[in-house]
Amino acid sequence: MADVQLATESVPSTPSSGNAIIFPDTTTKKLAMIDDGGVVRGTLSKNAAIASQGAGFSADTYVTNSDILIPSCGLQAGMVFRWTISLSKTAAGTAAAVFTFRLGTNKTTGDTSILALTQGTAQTAALSSGLIIITLVVRSVSATGVVAAGVGVATNTAGLGSGVDGVSGSVDLTSASGKSLGLSINGGASAAWTLTSVSAELIG
């Protein structure tokens, strides 16, 4: 049996026209490819929680293992971040939940908020379970970069409230390599959410 061993490396220079370079990224340890347009492609980073979280989220709370490590190329326009969360809530809590996207190295609510989305329709006083799918797309990268995101809610009752979408203002998205983009959730007063699974990925 033959093995192929590759040394990890930072993103290589853009190859000549008609070529692409495959490399294991030194930051995320994921296999990536850079094409002749300088775009880095692949499933560039992944994370997942291995235990339930909560009951909680009555105040702004960082979702454990929602942090997605950004590779050596940094952020690029067209990158897609996706979080999938299965959860349940008690009948307590009737506020509109706030979902905040945070960029930094702390992996806490101390990281910089680059966009916060508040549900258009609040939760209701009903025992509920469901699935929340959250997607963020990088529109442009600079000191005045822009991201757009949406939160989709699939539930057995109206208890979890509605989805929401929005676009950020100008945010500094430079020098992002080695930082993480993660998620915090504020379910509002009396909220008692239990997250049973959290998965996160970055697709280039």
- Relative strand content: over 45%
CATH topology tier name? Jelly Rolls
- Rg measurement, Å: 18 Å
What does the average pLDDT come to? 97
Number of β-strand runs = 15
Multimeric organization: single chain
- The total of helices stands at 0
Q: Could you state the order of secondary-structure elements as H and E?
A: EEEEEEEEEEEEEEE
Task: Extract low-pLDDT stretches.
Answer: none
Please, how many domains? 1
Distance between the termini: 32 Å
Helix content: under 10%
Largest sheet: 7 strands, antiparallel
Q: What is the level 1 CATH name? A: Mainly Beta
- The CATH architecture name reads Sandwich
**Tell me, what's the shape?**
elongated
Structural class: mainly beta
Describe this structure in words.
This protein is mainly beta and 204 residues long. The chain has one domain (45-203): Jelly Rolls, CATH 2.60.120. The protein is built from no helices and 15 strands. The protein has strands at residues 21-24, 31-34, 40-41, 43-48, 53-56, 61-62, 68-69, 80-89, 98-104, 112-118, 128-140, 146-155, 164-167, 180-186, 193-203. The two termini are 32 Å apart.
